[in-house]
Amino acid sequence: MPESSRWLVIGGGVMGLQVATDLIDRGQQVTIAEAAPTMGGLTSAWQLGDVTWDRFYHVTLTSDTVLRDLLRRLDLESQMQWVETKTGFYSGGRLHSMSNTAEFLKFPPLNWIEKLRLGGTIFYASKIRNWRRLEKLTVEQWLRRWSGNGVFEKIWHPLLQAKLGEAYKQTSAAFIWAHTARMYKARRSGMKTEMFGYVPGGYANILTRWVDWLRQHGATTMASSPVHKVVTHTEGGLRVEFGDGRSEVYDNVISTIASPQIAQQVPELDESEKQRHRGIRYLGVVCASMLMQRPISPYYVTNITDTWVPLTAVIEMSTIVDSQSQLGGKHLVYLPKYLPDDHDGLNESDEDYREKCLSTLEKMYDHFSRDQVLDFKIARTKYVAALSTVDYSTRLPRIVTNVPGFYALNSAHIVKGNLNVNETISLGTEKFTQEVWPDYLSRMEASAGQTLHQYLK
Ligand SMILES: Cc1cc2nc3c(=O)[nH]c(=O)nc-3n(C[C@H](O)[C@H](O)[C@H](O)COP(=O)(O)OP(=O)(O)OC[C@H]3O[C@@H](n4cnc5c(N)ncnc54)[C@H](O)[C@@H]3O)c2cc1C
To answer: For the residues of 284-344, what is the DSSP string, one character each?
Structure first.
């Protein structure tokens, strides 16, 4: 084990916390700088009425083994609650259950041949291992080929539009493959039931335990500490400038924030690297959390194929999270709209988005009334997930950069999965072990060699 160095991890989302955990496991001195007032990034929680729950909806799959190992380490895995869920579709002005094979076979918008082709496409996608081949095709080319034009127009096109807007045209087939493979894993077998899990107390509970663990093992956490700039320090190491004008020197820095922000943060990065960071397009989201007296839907996710609906989906969180023990007897619904990072809709006012959501729900659900809404809050973020465009993996920026000691390791490096916590922390550990740590060790070795050489001279 080399001597302990001072590391700064920029970003206190799950990627930052995972990298900090890996550094602590290797005996390093770690500080985490997070711009927001609390750690957790996209997984952080907020208060809705008298309920504290995630700002964005989160579920865990039984197949999320790396996340479950982490929860075991934090003594939380045994508390997990696993629930069978149902999926709905809003299509042709009606709600349909699509939770098992029998319901799929009854799904009215599609004829028999179309159902066969849709089922076949999903099954085939779940069996594909060589995802790189899929990166060469647009998602539209691939889906039209396997599902046919009818299924594409009736199902895939509206779903892709709802999730990606016009950006679906540049998105590769790897996107649908990763998504399908994850959802397929959630089902015990074939088109049978889905099992989703959560930790009581939600991510707020996980984050408290995780951050406590890090602090107990020597990490320093700095919230409300946005990093503005990272530059090489004349006397060695990297000088980090914070938003409040402070600056500090670290031996190494790992930035886990979104790629366009990394390009801005590190002026000494090669121009070609900056271009790669800037070239990554992201999907953002506007997501309302609505606390209700009564549930509105029996489905965890209601996918929407009717194009007049301005939402990506309706998520009834209380089909999974126990209302009595976790939500004070109330019900929690999320209303997300995903949009490309340059879309004006990400800046829509809270009042307009709220009105849009409520009037849409009034049309979709006969029993819904605004009087049942106890609290309504809107979260938005420009950088959720890097868009997996055609040939995406060939255009990724490097993790080990031209600036010695500065590493750029973020979720944009997920190339064979969709964005979720399990994938993010698995990638964090994998890339840390394969790229960051070996580079650090070879730099240490080189500098030890130089010192010895000078000593012997
Ligand atoms: C609507 C929605 C639904 C989701 N559903 C699920 C789900 O069901 N299951 C699941 O497993 N995953 C889900 N996810 C994905 C999951 O939240 C992400 O995979 C994960 O949180 C990504 O973590 P990250 O650390 O890479 O990024 P982030 O959480 O974005 O962390 C980056 C951090 O960097 C900070 N930062 C930015 N700039 C600076 C700066 N200059 N200085 C210091 N700090 C800075 C940010 O404030 C942020 O905290 C969902 C996400 C969303 C948005």
So the answer is: EEEEEEEEESS-S-S-SEEEE--TT---SEEEEGGGTS-HHHHSTT-EEEEEEEEEETT-G
* 162, 418 Cβ separation under 8 angstroms: no
Which residues neighbour 358 within 8 Å (Cβ) at sequence distance 6 or greater? 370, 373
Query: From the CA of 207, how far away is ligand 1's center (Å)?
Result: 13
- Looking from the CA of residue 16, the nearest atom of ligand 1 is 25
Hey, whose CA ends up nearest to atom 14 of ligand 1? 420
Q: How far is the CA of 419 from the centre of ligand 1 (A)?
A: 9
Whole-angstrom distance, CA of residue 291 vs CA of residue 204: 17
Could you tell me the distance, in angstroms and rounded to a whole number, from the CA of residue 302 to the centre of ligand 1? 23
Nearest CA owner, ligand 1 atom 20:
421
What is the spatial distance between Cα 273 and Cα 397, in angstroms, rounded to a whole number?
6
Distance of CA 358 to the CA centre of its chain: 26
How would you list the strands of the sheet with 227-232, edge to edge? 227-232, 238-242, 247-250
Residue nearest ligand 1's atom 27 by CA: 13
Instruction: Examine the pLDDT at 70 and tell me if it is beyond 60.
Output: yes
Give the residue extent of every domain in the chain: 6-79+200-279+390-456, 100-192
DSSP string, 383-428: EEEE--BTTGGGGPPPSB-SSTTEEE--GGG--SS-S-HHHHHHHH
Q: Which residue has the tokens 């619904």?
A: 333
**Pairing of β 45-48 and β 51-54:** antiparallel
Tell me: pLDDT of 329 over 50.
yes
Q: Has residue 452 got a pLDDT over 90?
A: no
Q: How far is the CA of 451 from the centre of ligand 1 (A)?
A: 41
The residues, ordered by sequence, that sit 6+ positions from 127 with a Cβ below 8 Å of its Cβ are: none
Categorise residue 391: left if φ over 0, alpha if ψ from -120 to 50, beta otherwise: left
Residue 187 has pLDDT above 70, yes or no: no
Return the structure tokens found at 160.
């892709």
What does the DSSP 8-state code read for residue 32?
E
Class (C level, CATH) for 6-79+200-279+390-456 = alpha beta
pLDDT tens, position by position, 99-125: 777 777 777 778 989 989 988 998 888
Kindly state the percentage of the chain with pLDDT values over 70: 95
Whether residue 98 has pLDDT greater than 60: yes
User: Which residues have C-beta atoms less than 6 Å from ligand 1?
Assistant: 10-16, 33-36, 41-43, 56-59, 226-227, 256-257, 261, 285, 287, 336, 384, 410-411, 419-422, 424
